[in-house]
Amino acid sequence: MAELRYRRATEADLSAIVALLADDVLGASRESASSGVDAPYRTAFAEIDADPNQFLCVVEDGGEIVGTLQLTFIPGLSRNGAKRGQIEAVRIARDRRGEKLGEAMFAWVIDECRARGCALIQLTTDKSRPDAHRFYDRLGFEPSHVGYKLKL
């Protein structure tokens, strides 16, 4: 593994990001990577890119995109006005899994959240992802809450 590069995604990265999102069991049922990057992805990207509290990250190794995640900085009143880092859509290229890229990505996330003054970092993970749960446990994250979603 060469030195990883973490950078803000550009619109040119959308195809690679969507392909990463679609390349797992859950993602394959939720994403439409086979049809290319259509308007909903481009609209979402534009909104994310315009928001200073959003960081859509791509991780490069030797110029190749090998991972992605979305990091949101959430100001809040609770916990004495604490800011939170919210991690979403973590993916690593299938052929690069098992190389500790996830650990490197989360070390970067933790540093970014500290630099932005976050008091805590949170994430949600699907109940059907036991490997992800073990990974987050190993990194020191605690399953402290129950999450709920309402599909609209």
Automatic annotation (TrEMBL):
Transmembrane segments: none annotated. PROSITE patterns: GNAT (PS51186). The keyword Transferase applies. Keywords: Acyltransferase, Transferase. It comes from the Bacteria. Residues 4-152 form the N-acetyltransferase domain. GO terms for molecular function: acyltransferase activity, transferring groups other than amino-acyl groups. The keyword DNA-binding does not apply. It holds the Pfam family Acetyltransf_1. CDD domains: NAT_SF (cd04301). This is L-amino acid N-acyltransferase YncA. It comes from Jannaschia seohaensis.
